[in-house]
Structures are given as structure tokens and as C-alpha cells.
């Protein structure tokens, strides 16, 4: 049953993260280097304080172009209202939340600390493995 598959089992644990004082252009370079469209922003204790997306970076560049002062810290451009999910949530719940929102990934937080991230593709991988496992059981009967 899909409800038995937990976010913890399929989340990515090793993430690119930024600190609030990271320079915007340094962050842009890391996003490009890792071929990702966004990353969590954490404090020194690993608490999630925001997300920085490609869109946030574009807004930072455009606002800098208007004021002739492009750049600055990630904290000036990051999104601070972040929807998170528990590692104990099941795949059905995270799927429903992905469908309700426009997000492609969601930070996983436990005890107020960022411990990973789950993406739509992680959910699809979980469902695929579940379906293959179930088909294997049927074929072996």
C-alpha cells in the first residue's frame, strides 16, 4: 500500500544549501554548477530559513539593474514562506501537496532542522518501485 511508503525512504539527503549571507552571484554559480533550479537557505544550526530559486535570482538581477547595484546577499532575495513536509509523511500526502501547489520539490524538516528534500521525481520513483514489487509478487504466485 502506498501509504506505507514514507518521505524518509525516498528523499534526497545531500543537498546544496546556502546561508543567508551567501553572495547572490556565488549562489547563481552554484545553482548552474549543480544544474539545479533552487536550493534551501539554512542558518548555522541547520534550521531552514528560506529557499532561493532561479526566479528569486532573476528578480535580484533585475532589481539590481534598475538601481545599478546588482548582487548582495541571498537573504535579500530568498523566499521566506516555505512549505515543508515531515519525513514521516507518506507518498500519498506529498503527492497531494505537489498537485495542490506548483512546487517541484519540498524541503523535509524534522525537529526544526532541514534533513532532506523530496521531489516529484522521487515520488514517481517510489511509485514505480512499489508497482514493480507488486507485479513481482503477482507473477511469483
From TrEMBL:
Signal peptide: none annotated. Residues 11-69, 78-135 form the CBS domain. It holds the Pfam family CBS. Keywords: CBS domain. SUPFAM superfamilies: CBS-domain pair. This is CBS domain-containing protein. It comes from Pseudomonas borbori.
Amino acid at each position: 500500500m502506498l501509504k506505507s511508503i514514507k518521505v524518509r525512504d525516498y528523499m534526497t539527503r545531500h543537498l546544496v544549501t546556502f546561508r543567508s549571507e551567501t553572495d547572490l552571484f556565488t549562489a547563481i554559480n552554484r545553482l548552474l554548477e549543480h544544474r539545479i533550479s533552487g536550493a534551501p537557505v539554512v542558518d548555522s544550526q541547520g534550521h531552514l530559513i528560506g529557499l532561493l530559486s532561479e526566479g528569486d535570482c532573476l528578480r535580484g538581477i533585475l532589481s539590481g539593474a534598475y538601481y545599478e547595484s546588482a548582487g548582495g546577499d541571498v537573504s535579500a532575495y530568498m523566499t521566506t514562506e516555505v512549505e515543508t513536509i515531515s519525513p514521516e509523511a507518506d507518498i500519498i500526502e506529498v503527492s497531494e501537496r505537489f498537485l495542490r501547489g506548483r512546487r517541484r520539490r519540498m524541503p523535509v524538516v524534522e525537529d526544526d532542522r532541514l534533513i532532506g528534500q523530496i521531489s516529484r521525481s522521487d515520488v514517481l520513483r517510489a511509485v514505480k518501485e512499489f508497482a514493480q514489487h507488486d507485479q513481482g509478487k503477482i507473477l511469483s504466485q
